[in-house]
Write a structure and sequence with these properties.
Elements: H1 3-9, H2 11-17, H3 27-32, H4 34-39, H5 53-73, H6 80-99, H7 101-131, H8 141-190, H9 197-264, H10 273-305, H11 318-335, E1 337-341, E2 346-348, E3 352-359, E4 373-380, H12 381-388, E5 400-403, E6 406-408, E7 410-412, E8 417-430, E9 446-456, E10 461-468, E11 473-475, H13 481-494, E12 507-509, H14 510-525, H15 531-542, E13 551-553, H16 554-558, H17 569-589, H18 599-606, E14 613-618, E15 626-631, E16 636-639, H19 644-649, H20 652-658, E17 664-665, E18 669-670, H21 671-675, E19 695-699, E20 725-726, E21 729-733, H22 754-757, H23 762-768
Parallel strand pairs: 2-11, 14-17, 16-20
Antiparallel strand pairs: 1-3, 3-8, 4-6, 4-9, 5-8, 7-8, 9-10, 12-13, 14-15, 15-16, 17-18, 19-21
Helix pairs in contact: 1-2, 2-7, 5-6, 5-7, 6-7, 8-9, 8-10, 9-10, 9-11, 10-11
Length: 772
């Protein structure tokens, strides 16, 4: 493809180059002599060396001859003005060629170099646009969308060229019409003179000239009518394609991103680059819509300048097309005003929180030239419903007061993002709706409404935009977090696109819920749930029934207590994952914890194992607890569950190290090989001032220790009763020599050295543990 063809096909390059063609080398010469100009070896002529003047003069004289030839070919009256311009240019340049040809050579070379640089920049930009779609399969959706964008870009350049041609023909028509008027005036003046042979001859000549011009005007009028109709039809086709592309980007890809963003609240890993891809698609779409809208408006202006009756059966489509494409732009702008970073969905009153709002097409439409203000308010579920019903009054309704809730959007030149980051918002007041039946406050949903107003195209178009955050549950106390999280998790998982705020199904299939629990557990702990884990979890809801195809209701999930327990299914699951995240994360990811297994199953696994084999399982009866089951000489025993409070005092790895009864981690791994990397180093027990800090050591009663005669008399394991559990205790231990501790009575603190007891709250330990 020639260099000139590339300039013509790229509207941005063409617009930029329009200001670089000087008077000595205007665009008309570049257009009519494009092939010849690019065939010359301009770089072989050194414009700074006078010796090259004869070569330059010869080359430029050839150019002038070609210009005279092109001008002579423009015999039609519609090219009268261009022919006149070319004749004037030839006369002007002829003088320069004879006196200073190297000056003109320098001008031509500079223009050609500028063209080349702008073309290279445009090609690099297009290539970068394709490459900067990470996270999108270029062989799939991304490639298809890019292909549609490129096709529409070509169509837009073609209609722009057609519009320029139409404008040129219309200008020619107006000039010829003016010529016709002049001839008519001359005829009328001639008729006022006395009749003579000369008058008759002039009259005949003028009438013929008038008739010729009128014939040309008739032909031009037909061409203009036909071209106007054809151009309008092309715009109509382009708009249909733009509608399809916009629907695909907004209704499919952007909605899909919003859905993934919502699932990220349940632990889905969201590709951060996918939003950048969407922004580039939306910016390309905005650019195409704006260019076509501009062309349609200009085409309409041309029709108003020269009104013509449309051919029979044809209608003027421009006003309808202008309304349609303006509607497309409005939809694009309002749909791309999004919440990039959601506020916390469990929102505690008086706590600081943040959010980021972004306009994906803000940079392309130059919205940042007059930076818009954004306001955040909190609204109820019913107020959100009113808003989606286009109730304009709903924009002023609130359900509470938020501090630091206004700000100005900022434009980042480096990435073209127009956004605002709210960092210090604070919910100071909340107005709750009347309760619905047994609905708890942690089931009531609110959302944050973000609103803004800005203009586009020099205040030509003004947009009032708003967007809603994901549903939030407002709490006032930390003990509400568990149930509030259940509401959020259910909503994030089972909300449907286009729903009425914030409706969710009352029951879902177990398989769908299992996927959500797995995702959430993995996001909190770094490792998901196995099929065995999920099977055990399902038994909490369905007992021994096969969960396949079973439905789980919201009440089963977080309202009705589990059988014979004072807590719900979600409270049991939530406290386990919280415990795992805060204290057991590494051990869980290392598969040192089996966790989700019943007492019966644990007994079956351990009873055939060597003495001292143990496993860790989450408690059924103690909420947020984990227990250790191990094989004694004859029976399987369970240690009373540890909870988060216990691990704040001493970690589970150190507790396992303390218990000599525990030898092998099921199924046959030496405990030190698994847990030693998590043991607390003894060097940490020496303070910087030389004092030796005491440590705690977990113990069990002697009668349950391995080899004890009393162990054989202890009550054996019973899965249905608590006597099978063994209460652990702790004892103080220091790094002092053993002889210093031989005569110490741990229940008599007066006998303990000051160095030992100063840093320990004995009363707290006595309340929490048994000393042995």
């Amino acid at each position: 493809m020639s260099q000139w063809a590339k300039v013509q096909q790229n509207p941005n390059v063409f617009r930029q180059m329009s200001q670089y063609y000087p008077a000595l080398f205007p665009m008309e010469i570049r257009f009519y002599l494009c092939a010849w100009i690019e065939d010359q070896r301009w770089n072989e002529i050194d414009e700074n060396n006078p010796q090259y003047a004869p070569i330059a003069q010869k080359t430029l004289s050839e150019m002038l001859d070609l210009m005279r030839q092109r001008a002579a070919e423009l015999t039609s009256q519609e090219f009268f003005i261009i022919k006149h311009k070319l004749d004037e240019l030839v006369q002007k340049l002829d003088a320069i060629v004879k006196t200073n040809p190297l000056e003109l050579i320098q001008v031509i070379k500079k223009v050609l170099l500028t063209e080349q640089q702008l073309i290279e920049q445009a090609e690099q930009s297009e290539q970068q646009m394709v490459q900067e779609f990470p996270g999108i399969d270029q062989s799939g959706i991304g490639e298809e969308i890019m292909g549609e964008i490129q096709n529409l870009s070509i169509r837009t350049r073609m209609t722009e060229s057609g519009l320029k041609d139409l404008q040129h023909k219309q200008e020619s028509f107006i000039l010829r019409f003016s010529d016709s008027q002049k001839v008519q005036v001359q005829l009328q003046g001639l008729l006022q003179t006395p009749l003579s042979i000369e008058r008759t001859q002039q009259e005949t000549r003028l009438k013929k000239e008038r008739d010729d011009i009128n014939d040309q005007l008739g032909q031009l009028a037909q061409q203009l009518q036909r071209q106007r109709v054809e151009l309008a039809r092309k715009y109509e086709e382009t708009i249909v394609n733009l509608q399809d592309l916009q629907k695909r980007i907004l209704d499919n890809e952007l909605i899909s991103w919003k859905r993934r963003q919502q699932m990220a609240g349940n632990g889905l890993v969201l590709d951060a680059s996918s939003l950048e891809t969407l922004q580039q698609w939306c910016e390309s779409l905005a650019d195409l819509i704006w260019q076509n809208r501009h062309q349609i408006k200009k085409s309409n202006q041309l029709q108003q300048q020269l009104p013509m009756k449309f051919p029979d059966g044809e209608e003027n489509l421009l006003q309808k097309l202008n309304d349609t494409i303006t509607g497309l732009l409005s939809t694009l702008v309002t749909s791309t005003f999004i919440v990039e970073q959601q506020p916390p969905q469990v929102l505690k009153k008086d706590a600081r929180f943040g959010a980021v709002v972004r306009l994906l097409v803000g940079g392309k439409l130059n919205v940042h030239m007059n930076p818009p203000q954004v306001k955040a308010t909190i609204i109820s579920e019913n107020q959100a419903k009113d808003l989606l019903r286009n109730d304009m009054k709903a924009r002023d309704d609130t359900s509470g007061d938020i501090l630091n809730n206004t700000g100005t959007m900022e434009y980042q030149q480096s990435n073209g993002q127009l956004s605002i980051s709210f960092k210090n918002m604070q919910l100071k007041k909340i107005k709750r709706a009347d309760k619905k039946g047994s609905e708890a406050v942690t089931e009531e949903k609110f959302c944050v409404l973000f609103q803004s107003e800005f203009s586009v195209g020099g205040n030509e178009l003004v947009f009032k935009v708003w967007t809603l955050s994901l549903p939030v549950v407002v709490t006032v106390h930390g003990n509400q977090e568990c149930n509030a999280t259940a509401t959020v998790l259910w909503d994030n998982a089972f909300a449907e696109a286009g729903r009425v705020p914030f409706n969710v199904p009352d029951q879902v299939e177990w398989a769908a819920l299992a996927d959500v629990l797995n995702m959430k557990f993995q996001s909190w702990t770094g490792k998901g749930l196995s099929d065995t884990n999920l099977s055990y979890i399902a038994s909490k809801l369905f007992g021994n029934r096969d969960p396949t195809g079973c439905m789980v209701t919201w009440s089963q999930f977080n309202k009705d207590p589990l059988p014979n327990r004072p807590f719900t299914f979600w409270e049991w699951f939530y406290t386990i994952q919280k415990l795992a995240r805060e204290h057991l994360k590494d051990l869980w990811t290392d598969e040192a914890i089996i966790g989700f297994v019943s007492k019966n199953q644990a007994q079956d696994w351990l009873r055939t194992q060597p003495q001292g084999t143990f496993l860790l399982r989450f408690s059924d009866s103690e909420i947020g607890g984990i227990t250790i089951a191990w094989t004694g000489e004859t029976e399987v025993w369970n240690l009373a569950p540890f909870t988060s409070k216990d691990f704040q005092i001493r970690g589970i790895a150190d507790r396992i190290k303390d218990l000599s009864s525990l030898v092998y981690l099921y199924p046959g791994k030496a405990k030190d090989s698994v847990f030693s990397k998590y043991y607390t180093s003894t060097t940490e027990n020496v303070s910087s001032d030389g004092y030796i800090r005491p440590t705690l050591k977990t113990t069990i009663p002697e009668k349950y220790a391995p080899g004890s005669e009393l162990e054989q008399l202890a009550q054996p394991f019973s899965p249905d009763s608590n006597p099978g559990s063994v209460q652990s205790g702790v004892m103080l231990q220091t790094l002092e020599p053993m002889e210093m501790l031989q005569n110490l009575d741990l229940n008599n603190t007066d006998q303990m050295p000051d160095d030992i007891i100063t840093d320990i709250d004995i009363d707290q330990l006595l309340q929490t543990h048994q000393f042995h």
